[in-house]
Amino acid sequence: MRRILLLAFAAACTHPATVTRPTVPIAKPTPKRIEPATLGARVLLAVTGYSAPRDAIALAELTRDYCAGTIAVLAPVQAIADQRFACTNPRPIATLDAFLPNAKTAAIVTDLDHVSARWKALRVDDKSAFANPATYPLVVGTFSAEHLTHFILTGVTAITRAAGAQIDANGIDWYTKNLRAEFADAKYVHISNEVSIKSDCTYPVSGTYQFCSKERDFQALIDLHANVIELTGNHMRDFGDEPLKKTLVWYKAHHMGTFGGGNNPAEADTPLVLELADGKKLGILGYNERCPLHECSKKPGEIGANAWDPAKAKAGIAKLREAGVDFIMTTVQFKEWDSAQPMDTQQKISRDLIDMGSDLVYGSQAHQLQLVEFYNGKPIFYGLGNLMFDQIHRLGVRQAFFLHEYFFDGKLVQAVPVFTFMSDDRQPTLATPEQAAAEKAIIFEDARLYSP
Questions:
Q1: What pLDDT does residue 34 have?
Q2: Were 47 and a residue from 119, 138, 197, 321 both cysteine, which residue would form a disulfide, CB within 3.0 to 4.6 Å?
């Protein structure tokens, strides 16, 4: 009997799967929570280059690829990002500049402290850290939109000629209805308005290059919440000084700040300084390069645009910096040029302004969109095209874009293009996905975006 029991026991030992064993939980150490050291570290971002095809990513996909190392992480951000994604990323990168060669084809996780406008932040689960911070899924702890400043930068506006005739027929509400939703939430809206109010203004649809606007149609500026008006345009004095004087009074009465022009040379050269979030400041200077229509303020007491002078620009930028302005934007009404490529002089002046200390340069003359460039890491928008004008005679003048710019801690951390296409009846219209893709292909050249 004893031998039978021993054999039975031995047989049982050869089939361990039939033996039931109690499950003993293994205690794992609870990971120590890492609190973000600064406010910007609380907002994680997955970023790519501007010419990269994707604009959004699902959180599940981002988590998977982050943990696999398919998506890299900026080394100073890794501890918080690893905590958020509950894994250890195997691919830390020391600096964002080191990732530039991969910017078009890959993504990297960074945060609001380290990002710059050179990088396109992907929407996560279709939520933007800038447009939808309250519901954006990669906020670690708390972060409020009050720490961001939303500024919209736009292209050429001249409500006149055939566009004005369409407003006569259809009304100003019809004219701006396709744009208004995009302009509803910004703290500052920039409009470069090239035309002055004239009491007896009429709108011939063609055959004239003298432009005016009816006061009625400045309602378009109100509808788009404009409060930053650029005065560098070529056509403000087409009908003499009185219409421009009247227009400056209108801007003041409607609480719109102006720059790049004024009642005399000193006023024309006075920058506009705007309050950003958290006590930071944005300063804007504007110039007209050529003054082809005698629109510039040069003589004592002469009204008009601020004439370009490199010494004056250098001094103006230096004064803003000495005054503690955190971010300096410089705009120039360059010579008009029917090409997406900037003129040599346009490129030289823009780069010189960056070398003088400007943080962003914008060409406000362009009736068609032009290239985007990062020079020494700072953005140059050579031209945004027509926001509100009447040109439809060729494809280039119908294509345009404006920018949702977001400032954090006195820095421009994002510039989101919104593409438009002028309709056959001269109504400004948001571009279709196909039209937007064609416009992106024009303005984004890899060599200008990703060079060190």
A1: 79
A2: 119
